[in-house]
Design brief:
The complex is a heterodimer of chains A (446) and B (318). Chain A has helices spanning 9-16, 18-41, 50-71, 74-78, 83-90, 116-127, 129-132, 136-156, 161-166, 168-177, 189-194, 199-202, 230-234, 258-279, 283-290, 295-327, 333-343, 345-363, 365-372, 394-423, 428-445; strands at 3-4, 182-186, 240-244. With 446 residues, chain A is an all-alpha fold. In chain A, strands 1-3-2 form a three-stranded antiparallel beta sheet, with no helix packed on it. Chain B has 318 residues and is an alpha+beta fold. Chain B starts with a helix and ends in a 5-residue tail after the last helix. The chains are: A mainly alpha (446), B alpha+beta (318).
C-alpha cells in the first residue's frame, strides 16, 4: 500500500537538493513580508487588502483544502515563519553546521514538551479571530509577532521550538497530518539502530540534525515530523523514504496523550463555533465576537471556552463511558478517552474543510482584485483589479459540504470502529456522538 | 564560505529588500501631484485630509478611497457631479475652480448617524473676484427672523390645500399676494390670515382660501425647481427627515439619542405652515437649532436652497 517517492531519482534530487526548497522559501518569505507590509501600509479595508485576502482566503484555502488533507505537514516544509530565526540560529542558509552552537541553544523545558501551549495559542487566535481575520493591521501584527517570536525562540532554544511547541497552526496541522496519505519514514529500522552517529538527529557535514527534535528512526506517526527533508540529506545509508500511503494510516495507532486529545476537541468545537458565528445569520453573536473587550465578548468567550473545553469533551467522555459499560471494559477512562479522541480526527478535519469551502468559494473573487491592487492604492498590476466580487460555485456548495460532512462521519465511524476493536470498547456511543455533532454542523452550515 | 551560501544570502538580502522597497518607490512616483483623500465615518475621523489647497485655473487631482464603508464625494456650490467612494477602491476625480474662496466637500452617502459631519474644505486661492454669494447676507438676516424659536401656525387647514382649487379663484386675488417678496417673507398661515380678512376674497370658504395659499406657493415655483428640490431632499435630507418628510428617517432615532430631539416632521401642518420660505431657508443655510441639523450654506447654491424650500411645502400642499 505504500510507495516510496524517493525511488524516482528526479523526486529524490528535488527533495534532497537545498535549492528547490530555498527558491520556494524565497517566494514564501517575500509573500509573507509583502502581506505584513500591506496590512500596515495598505487599505484598512479587509477584502481589498493583500494581507487579509492572501493569508485568510488564499493561504487558508490551500492549507485546509489541499495541503493538510493530502500532504499533512507539507505546508510546514515551505512555511516562511521559522526561516529567519533558523538561519540566524545556524549562522547559515546553505552551509553545513558549525562545530559549536552560535547562541544559547537551550533545551525546551520538559514540562512544556507537549502541545498544550499550541492548544492555548490556537484558542487565543480563535477567540480574537473575528478581529484578526478582518482587520489588516491586526493580521500584520499577529504575523509579525509570530515571525519575531520564532526568531527569538531560535536564538534562545535549540532547533525549531516555535514550530514544535508554540505555533498555533502547527498544532492542528500535526493532528490532521496523521490522516494524510503522505509520510516520511525510515526504510529499515535496523539500519537506524545500527547507525552510530545518528546524523539525522545530531547533524553532520551533510546537514542539520532534525529541526523538529524528532529521531526519524522512531517515527510512527506524522504529528511531529515537519517534512523539512533534512534527514533525507543527512542519512548516510539512504534509509529515508517519502511514502504515499492510505488515508488515515496513523489513526490506527491511538494516541495516549491528553494534549493531543484536547487538540481534537478544540478543532472540532472551533469549526462548529466558526460556522455558527462567521457564517450564521445571528448578527448579535457576530458583533459580540467582534467587540473584543466588551461585556458581550466576554460572554462569547465564556460560551466558546465552555463548549470546547467543557461540553464537547464531557459529552464525548460520556459516550466513551457508556461504551465501556456496554463492553465491561477495564481500561482506564483516561486511556479510553484519548484513544477514541484519535478516532474523531477525520471528523474535525472534514468539519474544517466543509466550513472553509463556504467562505473560500464566497470570497475567492477578492484574490483577483487584491493581486492587482495589493495595497488598495488604485494599482492594476495584472489587469484584474476591477474584477468585482461574486461567489463561486454557489449551486455546488451545499452538496459539496454535505458530501464532505457525511464522508467525514463515515470515515470517523470507520476509525472509531478500528480503535474500538483495538481497545475492546464498544464504538457505538462514540459513533452516535459523531453523528449528533455532524448533524449539528450540517444544520449550522446549511 | 561556500559559493551557495553566498549566493543564497545575496538572493535573500537583495530580493527581500526589493520586495519591501518596491511598493513605496512605485507609490512615490505614482502619486505626484495627486491628493489622496481617505474617507472614514465621522466617528473614525471623517475626511483625511480635512483641508485641501488649490489654485484657480489649475486642475486638482483627487484620489478618493474609503477606509470603512461606502461614502460619496461632492463639492458644495460646484457643478462637479457627486461620485461614490468605495471601501478599498480608488475613485479619481479632477476638479477645477474658476473663483477663489473656501469650498466645502461633503459625503453624499448615508454612511452613519454622523454622516453629515463628514465635511472638509478646499481653500482655493487666485486673483479672480471671489464668489459673491457669501457676501450677501441671507434673507432671514435681512428680515431679522429668529429661526431658533418655535413657529407654530396660528391657523391650519381642515383638508390638504389644493392649488388647483385656488387657481379657480385666482382672478379674485389682488396682485400684491403674488409678489415674490411677499411670498418669501410670509408663512402660509400668515398668508391665510391675510386673505381671510381681505374684502376682495370675502365670499370664499376656508378651503378655497387655503387653496389660494397653495396657489400662491405654486406660482412662486417651477416644476423643474420642484424636481431639483426633490432630488436634493432625497439625497441630503431624507436620511433624518424621512423620505415622506415624517421625521422618521433611518437616522432619526440616532439623532434623537444624540440631540434629544427628533428631526422636524414636515407632515405636521402646525409646524410647517407656520414657517415662511425665508425662515426655512435660514434653517437650511445655518443649521443648528440645538438639533443635529447640519449647515447647508456652504453646500447648496442659492437656487438649490430655494428649490429645496419649495419642495418642502409639497408635504402640505397638493
Amino acid at each position: 500500500m505504500r510507495s516510496d517517492l524517493t525511488r524516482f531519482p528526479f523526486v529524490k534530487s528535488l527533495l534532497k537538493n537545498r535549492w528547490p526548497q530555498f527558491l520556494v522559501w524565497f517566494v514564501m518569505l517575500a509573500g509573507f513580508l509583502f502581506a505584513i507590509l500591506s496590512g500596515f501600509f495598505g487599505t484598512p479595508v479587509g477584502n481589498r487588502n493583500f494581507g487579509i485576502v492572501f493569508v485568510w482566503i488564499a493561504w487558508w484555502a490551500v492549507l485546509i483544502l489541499v495541503a493538510v488533507p493530502f500532504f499533512g505537514r507539507g505546508w510546514c516544509s515551505v512555511c516562511p515563519i521559522p526561516l529567519p530565526g533558523e538561519w540566524l540560529q545556524r549562522g547559515a542558509i546553505m552551509n553545513p553546521p558549525g562545530k559549536k552552537p552560535r547562541w544559547f541553544n537551550l533545551r525546551w523545558p520538559n514540562k512544556l514538551r507537549n502541545i498544550w501551549l499550541q492548544n492555548l495559542t490556537f484558542t487565543l487566535v480563535a477567540l480574537f479571530s473575528s478581529v484578526i481575520l478582518t482587520t489588516p493591521k491586526v493580521t500584520s501584527i499577529v504575523l509579525a509577532a509570530m515571525l519575531f517570536l520564532a526568531i527569538g525562540m531560535s536564538i534562545v532554544f535549540e532547533r525549531r521550538t516555535f514550530c514544535r511547541y508554540l505555533c498555533p497552526v502547527g498544532g492542528f496541522i500535526g493532528l490532521y497530518a496523521q490522516a494524510a496519505p503522505m509520510e516520511l519514514r525510515v526504510k529499515n529500522k535496523q539500519v537506524c539502530l545500527a547507525c552510530k552517529d545518528k546524523p539525522c538527529y545530531n547533524g553532520s557535514e551533510a546537514g542539520y540534525g532534525c529541526p523538529w527534535d524528532v529521531f526519524p528512526g522512531g517515527l510512527t506517526k506524522n504529528t511531529y515530523c515537519g517534512l523539512c527533508m533534512e534527514c533525507l540529506r543527512t542519512c548516510p545509508y539512504d534509509n529515508i523514504s517519502v511514502n504515499t500511503r492510505p488515508f488515515s494510516a496513523d489513526l490506527s495507532k491511538p494516541s495516549g496523550r491528553m494534549d493531543e486529545a484536547f487538540k481534537a476537541f478544540i478543532m472540532l468545537g472551533a469549526a462548529m463555533i466558526y460556522a455558527g458565528v462567521l457564517l450564521g445569520p445571528w448578527g448579535k453573536i457576530k458583533l459580540a465576537a467582534y467587540s473584543v473587550g466588551s461585556l458581550s465578548w466576554f460572554g462569547y468567550t465564556a460560551v466558546f471556552l465552555a463548549f470546547i473545553f467543557g461540553l464537547l469533551p464531557a459529552l464525548f467522555l460520556g459516550a466513551v463511558g457508556i461504551g465501556k459499560v456496554l463492553t465491561k471494559s477495564t481500561l482506564a477512562l483516561k486511556q479510553s478517552f484519548t484513544a477514541f479522541a484519535t478516532a474523531i480526527v477525520p471528523l474535525g478535519l472534514m468539519f474544517w474543510v466543509a466550513f472553509s469551502l463556504s467562505f473560500v468559494l464566497t470570497n475567492a473573487a477578492y484574490i483577483f482584485s487584491s493581486l492587482s491592487d495589493p495595497f488598495g492604492w488604485g494599482w492594476d498590476l495584472f489587469g484584474t483589479a476591477a474584477i468585482s466580487w461574486q461567489p463561486y460555485l454557489t449551486s455546488l456548495l451545499l452538496p459539496l459540504q454535505t458530501g464532505v460532512l457525511v464522508g467525514g462521519l463515515l470515515w470517523t465511524a470507520r476509525t472509531t470502529q478500528k480503535v474500538g476493536s483495538k481497545v475492546n470498547i464498544s464504538p457505538i456511543p462514540v459513533i452516535i456522538f459523531s453523528t449528533v455533532v455532524t448533524l449539528t454542523m450540517l444544520g449550522l452550515l446549511l | 564560505m561556500k559559493n551557495s551560501e553566498q549566493l543564497s544570502r545575496l538572493l535573500i538580502t537583495v530580493g527581500l529588500l526589493i520586495v519591501i522597497a518596491l511598493p513605496f518607490v512605485a507609490r512615490s512616483v505614482d502619486t505626484q501631484d495627486i491628493v489622496e483623500v481617505h474617507a472614514r465615518m465621522a466617528e473614525s475621523g471623517g475626511w483625511m485630509p480635512g483641508t485641501i489647497q488649490a489654485q484657480t485655473g489649475i486642475p486638482l487631482y483627487l484620489r478618493l478611497t474609503s477606509d470603512d464603508v461606502m461614502h460619496g464625494f461632492a463639492i458644495g456650490q460646484s457643478d462637479n457631479p457627486a461620485v461614490d467612494v468605495l471601501p478599498g477602491k480608488i475613485t479619481e476625480v479632477t476638479v477645477a475652480f474658476d473663483k477663489p474662496g473656501t469650498y466645502t466637500y461633503y459625503c453624499t452617502r448615508w454612511c452613519g448617524p454622523n454622516h453629515w459631519r463628514m465635511r472638509g474644505t478646499i481653500e482655493v486661492t487666485g486673483n479672480e473676484m471671489p464668489s459673491s454669494q457669501a457676501i450677501n447676507p441671507p434673507l432671514y438676516i435681512k428680515l431679522n427672523l429668529d429661526i431658533d424659536t418655535p413657529h407654530l401656525a396660528s391657523a391650519t387647514p381642515a383638508v390638504i390645500p389644493d392649488a388647483q382649487r385656488g387657481a379657480i379663484f385666482s382672478a379674485l386675488l389682488p396682485d400684491s399676494y403674488l409678489l415674490p417678496d411677499y411670498y418669501l417673507s410670509h408663512s402660509p398661515a400668515q398668508v391665510y390670515l391675510d386673505v381671510q380678512v381681505d374684502p376682495a376674497l370675502a365670499t370664499l370658504s376656508n378651503s378655497d382660501l387655503w387653496g389660494l395659499v397653495a396657489y400662491i406657493w405654486q406660482s412662486n415655483t417651477t416644476p423643474e425647481g420642484l424636481t431639483e428640490g426633490q432630488r436634493l431632499f432625497a439625497q441630503n435630507c431624507a436620511a433624518c427627515h424621512g423620505e415622506t418628510g415624517n421625521g422618521d428617517g433611518v437616522f432619526s432615532a440616532d439623532i434623537n439619542a444624540l440631540a434629544g430631539k427628533y428631526p422636524a416632521n414636515f407632515s405636521d401642518p402646525a409646524s410647517l405652515l407656520g414657517a415662511g420660505p425665508a425662515l426655512l431657508q435660514g434653517k437650511i443655510l445655518r443649521g443648528g437649532m440645538g438639533t443635529g441639523m447640519p449647515s447647508w450654506g456652504p453646500i447648496f447654491t442659492n437656487q438649490q436652497t430655494w428649490d429645496l424650500v419649495s419642495y418642502l411645502y409639497t408635504f402640505q400642499f397638493k
